[in-house]
């Protein structure tokens, strides 16, 4: 499954089949379906990455509580990590 940008309808938001979500640009493994959960945002939500280097992170200075994330291999933009917005207290949401 390729993780893709939101262009009017995210096809993987309500998709909960077992599998691995990969970067649409280079195919690097990003998230497992085991870390996916239902969330009210229009994008799929995950609690953790597959590999420690699956994503690169950089501060988002104008959005407190959000960190900009991109593919750890090719740099393709993936969105944000929202701190303390996961399904359990203290968890982040990708």
From TrEMBL:
InterPro entries listed in its UniProt record: Met_Sox_Rdtase_MsrB_dom, MsrB_Met_sulfoxide_reductase, Mss4-like_sf
Species annotation: Camelus dromedarius
Subcellular localization(s) per the UniProt record: Cytoplasm, Cytoskeleton; Nucleus
A cellular component term, taken from the record's GO annotations: nucleus
Alphabetized GO MF terms: L-methionine-(R)-S-oxide reductase activity; metal ion binding; peptide-methionine (R)-S-oxide reductase activity
EC number(s) per entry: 1.8.4.12, 1.8.4.14
Family: Belongs to the MsrB Met sulfoxide reductase family.
GO biological process, one term: innate immune response
Reactions this protein catalyses: [thioredoxin]-disulfide + L-methionine + H2O = L-methionine (R)-S-oxide + [thioredoxin]-dithiol; L-methionyl-[protein] + [thioredoxin]-disulfide + H2O = L-methionyl-(R)-S-oxide-[protein] + [thioredoxin]-dithiol
Pfam families given in the database record: SelR
Transmembrane region(s): none
Gene3D superfamilies: Peptide methionine sulfoxide reductase (2.170.150.20)
Chief location category: cytoplasm
Enzyme class at the top of the EC tree: oxidoreductase
Lineage: Eukaryota, Metazoa, Chordata, Craniata, Vertebrata
Protein name: Methionine-R-sulfoxide reductase B1
Domain MsrB as annotated: residue spans: 1-94
Cofactor(s) this protein cannot do without: Zn(2+)
Function: Methionine-sulfoxide reductase that specifically reduces methionine (R)-sulfoxide back to methionine. While in many cases, methionine oxidation is the result of random oxidation following oxidative stress, methionine oxidation is also a post-translational modification that takes place on specific residue. Acts as a regulator of actin assembly by reducing methionine (R)-sulfoxide mediated by MICALs (MICAL1, MICAL2 or MICAL3) on actin, thereby promoting filament repolymerization. Plays a role in innate immunity by reducing oxidized actin, leading to actin repolymerization in macrophages.
């Amino acid at each position: 499954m390729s993780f893709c940008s939101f262009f009017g309808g995210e096809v993987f938001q309500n998709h909960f089949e077992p599998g691995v979500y990969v970067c649409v640009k280079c195919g690097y493994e990003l998230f497992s379906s085991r870390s996916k959960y239902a969330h009210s945002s229009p994008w799929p939500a995950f609690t953790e990455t597959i590999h420690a280097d699956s994503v690169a992170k950089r501060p988002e200075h104008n959005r407190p509580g959000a960190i900009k994330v991109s593919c750890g291999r090719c740099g393709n933009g993936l969105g944000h990590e929202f701190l303390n917005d996961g399904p359990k207290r203290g968890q982040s949401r990708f």
